[in-house]
Structures are given as C-alpha cells and as structure tokens.
Write a structure and sequence with these properties.
With 401 residues, this protein is an alpha+beta fold. 24% of the residues lie in helices and 36% in strands. It has a six-stranded antiparallel barrel with strand order 12-13-16-15-14-17. A five-stranded mixed beta sheet has the order 8-7-9-10-11, with helices on both faces. Strands 2-6-5 form a three-stranded antiparallel beta sheet. It is elongated, with a radius of gyration of 25 Å.
Length: 401
Amino acid sequence: MKRLLSLAVLGALALFVVSAAHAVVLEGVGHANIHNGNLEAARAEARKAAIRDLSLQYEARVSTHDTMKNGVITESRMDLASSARARNVRVIDEFQSGNLLRVIVRGDISESRSQCGSGDSGRLKKRVAVTGFPVLYPDQARVGRIDDAGEILPQQLQQRLVAQGGLQVFGATTSRMFTDLLNAPTVQQGDNRLTNVLELAREMGVQFVVTGVIRDLGVADPSAWGTSVLDKMQRGIGAVDQRRRFAADLVIFDGFSGAPVYRHRFEAAADWDAGPGSSAGFGSAGFQKTAYGQAVEDVIADMAMAVTDALACQPFMTRIARVDDFSVTLESGATAGLRPGDELKIYRSKRYLESPDDSPELQDSDLSVTLEKVQPHFSRGTMPQLGGIVNIQRDDIAIIW
C-alpha cells in the first residue's frame, strides 16, 4: 500500500521535537573595561561575556591545535566552544569598580537542537520568507514614536537569520498575513491553513513563511509620561514606574500546506529610559541604547534561534517545475546546497474532489530523482521510469530527509 504523508503531520512532528528540549536556569558573570567613559559599550561587552559564561557552564568542548615545524611545536592554540543556547537572559546585577564593569546575568540554558539537522537535509538551505509583524495596539507605539515596529522587527529578524547562514531568507516585511490580529493566526479554512500564506509561498518560491503579531508595546504607567515639569522631575528621580512591556507572537507556516509548524510568544520588560527626543523609531540608535531596546534586541535574537531550531527538524522540500519523459526539473539548485548526485524522493501532491480546499496529501511514488545538472536556482535529474506512466507532474514534491 502506498504511504500517504500529510504535510500537516510533518509539521506536527517537528513541533513535538522542538518543544521537547530541556532547559535549566544558570547564572553567568562577564567583565569588560570601560574605555573613554563609554559605559554602554562596556555593558554590552560584559553582557556578551556573561552569556558566553552561561553557555560554557552548561556544555563546553575543548579542542587544541598545534603547529609543528621540523618536529618542533611552533604554535599551540586551545579553543573553547559550546553548542548550548541561552534564552530569556536577564541582567540581575551590575557592579563598577574604576574602569572595570562586572555584569551578572541569569538565563534559561538548553542543549542545541542542531541534531535535527544531522541528516542529509541538514546541509541544505531551506527557503524562508519573513513577513510583517503588525502591531495589535498602534496607540501604544506613540511613546518613543516606535510605530514602525511592525516592519523594523521582521527586518532585524531577517538580518539575524541571514547572519546565521543556515537558511535562504527573503523579505516581505510589508506583507500582512492576518486580517484579524486579535485572534491571529486566523483559521480561514476548515483545515487550519491560511490561503494568503499559500499564495505568498508560491509567489516567492519558499518552503516556509515566518510571520507574527506584536501584541504589546505598552508602558507600565501611562501617567508617568506626561510633559509637565512635575512629570519630568518624577522620571528624573525614579519616582514613577518607567517599565515598558514587549510581547510578540512568532508563527512559522509550511508553505505547501499552510499548516503552522511552530508558534511561540516572546516577552520582555525593561525600563524605557530614553531621553526627550532621543528615540525616533523602533530601530533608531536612541531606541537601541535604552534598556528596553536592549531587551527587545535579545528577544529578536531568541526569535531567530527559534526559527533556525524549528526548521532544522523539517525535511528539505522543493517543487517539481517540469517533467519530460525521464527528466525532472526542480525549483531549487546550488544556492540551496544541492549537488550533482543528490537523490531526492518524489511524492505526488494529491487532492480529493470532495474537498479541493484541504491541505494536499503526499503520496510516496516509490521513485527518486538523481540530480545530474545543478544551476544556482534550479536543478535537473533523471528518474528510472517515464513521468507520464507514474503520473509525476509539475507541482509534485521532491524531498530529502
């Protein structure tokens, strides 16, 4: 009997793997020298050192590299590395002594989930589109004039994903996937898929769509941000609550079925300590210098890591663009990491007449395509039977696990 694989089932399995990781709470210490009175730069450097200390406490690997010449060691180097990752990192103590700054952080440390990418698909770069993150309550963005958050946040997320290097990332930060922000992700069909996700994925040729909603940008005490002399004086002496909240839902959709494969709410809170007129936008230098801006930056870093981890557990999938006798052309090529000799399983994309809007099921054809020619954006190979005989056609799927 032919095996039927539902794309939604694939996503659910990946979501189970992603959520199964174990985390522990640890504290790390970092130090940095203050140069030319630049406390912010020293604080950022000390914080990075503290996070590195966190990761190394959880899991560390030591490797040595010796250089020899004529039987004599001329150079010896030891590298210390960790594959652990830190989330929800918070600064719990800061101490300055002269030009030396010490920072202590606390965070949730878990094992890297890169083992999901240890199969043949691990070396391949899946195509991902990052869309806009609309703001649920735009009025909250007036303080600090950060009404551009819905476009700047996904742009920063996209930049981090590109820097990580494991995905092919495309920007669509002006696109909105949801019409009902309060209840997003909205179920527009009876099968928990979004038609606009499918359309965007097809148009951009991506396997996954990363999107979300910014749920909260509010300040803890709105009355603390008045313009009177008394209001300014109270803020100056710390007599009012200056904390500001941040919360955003991140959702990853499978571009072939529209099914969600990952969803998580990311939250943070920190003091909004921007001076008058110093912040003019979500990505401005003034915003980034605030304690709140630094907390949000950490959240975006967590988002990028979450996307990478979630998609590492997914197979590599690409559409069939053309079938000509024994020849099969795929919509992915060298930029995705495909090479001549790679073998991909072929699945037929099957729909039923009584439910044409349901997510397609993938029917194993018991055939594979072996690549012979690989170009940057497409590849071509052969299968052992005529495409017309086994009904392999355009828009069927090729998979590497």
